[in-house]
Amino acid sequence: MALYQADWLLTLQGREIRDGLLAVQGKKIAFVGEQKDLPPVFRSQEIHRFSKSILMPGFINAHAHLELGWARGLVSPSQGFCAWVQRLMTAAQDQAPQQFEDSVRLGARECLKNGITSVVDIGNLPISRKALAEENIRSWAMHELIGLSLERATEQVLRVEGKLGGEKSSLHRESFTCHAPYSCHPLLWNAALRFAEQAQIPLSFHLAESEEEERLFSKREGPLWDFCFQRGLRLDASTPRSPLGYLLKNDWLPKGALVVHGNTLSELDARTLLEYQCSLVHCPRSHTFFNHPEFKVELFHEMGLNLCLGTDSLASNEGLDFIEEMALLKRQHPKLECETIVRMATCNGAMALGMQKQLGILAEGAYADFIALGLEHSSSCNLYEELVREGGPVNAVILEGQEVLI
Predict the structure, then answer these.
(1) Nearest in space to 191 (alpha carbons), one of 252, 110, 112
(2) pLDDT at 166 over 80
(3) What gap in Å lies between CA 107 and CA 52, rounded to an integer?
(4) How many whole angstroms from its chain centre is CA 303?
C-alpha cells in the first residue's frame, strides 16, 4: 500500500481535488479523494507528498516510431514528404540492428522522463518489439507490414504468421498492422485485419497524411505516385479518389481503428470515421515539421471524433515530450479548450485502446499509472490551462503502483 498527495489531483473524471490523496494497492488505485474520506486501512501509511505539483494520469502516446530515434535531426523535409521517406529509407540501410534496439530503449526512457506512461509503437523489426517488452513502460508494439508486390507481401505474411503476441504481459501487448493504403498489398491488409482481431488490439495505420498522398489518389500523379507505381501500386478507373474511399471499397476499415494523421480528411471522411467508431491521432510537432495541411482539430472535436495525441518518430520531431505537443497545439489552435487538449493526451488515448476504465484517469480500480507534474502556481482558476501553458518538470512517474526511475 502507498499514499500520494499533491496540491491538486487532476482526475480526468470531471473533478479536481485540492490536497487530495491517492491510495495505491498492488497495481491499482484503491482510493481517490479528500483526506477526511480516507478509509481507515490506509491511515497508517506514510504519505508521499509532492509540493507545487499535481498528480494526474500518465500521458498516452498514441503513435510513435521509437526505433527511428537514431534519425533525430538527420533528414530535412525541404524537398517534400516522398523525398524525405526515400532519404530516410536509404539512411536506415546503413544502420546496424543494435542501432534500432538502442533507439527503442532510449525512446521508451525518454517517454517516461516526460510523463508518458503508455505508448503505441509502430516498428519494423522483431528486435524492436523484444526491446520494448523489456522496458518498464506500458506498450502496444505493432509490427508494421509494408510492401506492394505479391512476392514481398507473401514473404512477410509467412514470416510473421503464428508469431502474434510473442511477448505479452500486463504492460506489453503485440500485434501487426499496415503502414498505409498506398503502401500495402491487399494480402497484407487482410492479414493485418486478421491479426488485430486475434490480438484484440485496434488496427492502427497512417491515413490522409500528406498532400502527396492526396494527389496519388485523386490525380494519379506526383512524387509519391511515381514512387509507389514503380513498386507495384496499381489503381484502376473504379478505384475511389481518396485514401479512405480506397479502404472502404476493399472493406479494410475495421470498427474502432486507430487512424493516424488525417491531415487531408474531408468533413465527409471524418463522419465516416465517426460512423466506424474510429479514433484519430494528431502529432502536432511532426505535423509542423512537414508543414502538412492544417489539421481540422476544432471541426473534428465538434463532430465528436475521439482525438488523441502522438509524437510520431524522432526522425520528424525534436523530442518525445507531450508538454511540448500540447503547448504547440494550443498555440496553433487558440480556440481549442485546454481541457480538450489534456484529454487528447490522456483519457482519449485510453478510449482508443479500449481501456477507458483502466488508463488515462485517476479512479478506484484503474491502473496506478500516474505522474507528479510540477506547476508553479497550482491555482484553482484553471488547472488545465496551467498544465498546457506552464506545465513544469515531471517529478515522479508511477507505473502499476511502482515508482519508475527517470
Answers:
(1) 252
(2) no
(3) 28
(4) 21
Cα–Cα distance list, 298 to 18, 305, 329, 349 (Å): 31, 10, 11, 18
The alpha helices in 40-96, defined as continuous H runs, are: 81-92
All three cell numbers of 136: 518498464
List 31's β-bridge partners, or say none: 23
Q: Which residues of 78-102 are buried (b: 16+ CB within 10 A; e: fewer)?
A: eebbbbbbebbeeebeeeeeeebbe
Backbone angles phi, psi at 45, to 5 degrees: -80, 145
Which grid cell is 345? 493526451
List of residues 6+ apart from 322 with CB closer than 8 A? 59, 61, 114, 115, 116, 309, 311, 345
Q: How far apart are CA 205 and CA 208, in angstroms?
A: 10
Q: Which DSSP category does 360 fall into?
A: S
Residue with cell 516510431: 65
Q: Whole-model pTM?
A: 0.96
Strands of the 312-313 sheet, one edge to the other: 172-178, 138-145, 116-123, 59-65, 312-313
Beta 306-309 vs 370-374: how paired, if at all? unpaired
In sequence order, what DSSP letters do the residues of 198-228 get, joined into one string? HHT---EEEES--HHHHHHHHHS-SHHHHHH
Name the helix (H) or strand (E) containing 54.
Answer: strand 47-57
263 touches 293 (CB < 8 A): yes
- What does the pLDDT look like over 107-147, one tens digit per residue? 999 999 999 999 999 999 989 999 999 999 999 999 999 99
Rg for the chain, CA atoms, rounded: 21
The residue to which cell 499514499 is assigned: 3
Rounded to whole angstroms, the Cα distance separating 144 from 203 reads 11
204 contacts 122 by C-beta, under 8 angstroms: yes
Q: How far apart are CA 236 and CA 239, in angstroms?
A: 5
Quick one: DSSP state of residue 36? Answer: G
Q: Decide: 298 and 334 in contact? Cβ < 8 Å.
A: no
How large is the greatest C-alpha to C-alpha distance in the chain, in angstroms?
73
Q: For residues 333 and 328, what is the distance between their CA atoms, to the nearest angstrom?
A: 8
- pLDDT (average), residues 215-231: 96
**Rounded alpha-carbon distances, angstroms, from residue 126 to 59, 130, 141, 257, 318:** 26, 6, 10, 23, 25
